[in-house]
Amino acid sequence: MADDKIKIIADNRRARHDYHILETHEAGIALTGTEVKSLRAGKANLRDSYAMVKDGELYLEGAHISPYEHGNRYNADPLRRRKLLMHKRQILKLYGQVKQEGLTMIPLKLYFVRGKVKVDLALCKGKKLYDKRDASAAKDAKREMERAVRGRGRSREDA
What we know:
The chain is an alpha+beta fold. The chain has helices at residues 13-18, 33-40, 88-101, 129-158; strands at residues 6-11, 19-29, 44-45, 50-54, 57-61, 64-65, 82-85, 104-113, 116-126. Helices cover 36% and strands 35% of the residues.
């Protein structure tokens, strides 16, 4: 397993800004052939996408996979609902957490593992505006500290 090559196709960086990520799960995804070819070209966007449970099955909504240039009539709708593949027990557990605790399922990244497309699905709780401000302020403060430490190290070397 250590030698498995992971090629990231799309990353949902906005999700880390908008949500508190509680836990993550890996899920497979059911795709058409032209969608896989489009993903190999790196043409996917996970912004504003989410996962939901419907009739005991898990679906990905709002993920945009651009049509394959040479796909002609075989291209599927770029924003269609795509089925996510997980064990029934895992789906029911996620569904229970979403219903009871008011959480959301957000895809964090789309990637290839051993030729198969996988989705990193996160169980999230939405951040309030003040949480976002606090996170931004902490990030800026950390950056300033690192900059100051780096600057101090240089001045000693020059002297």
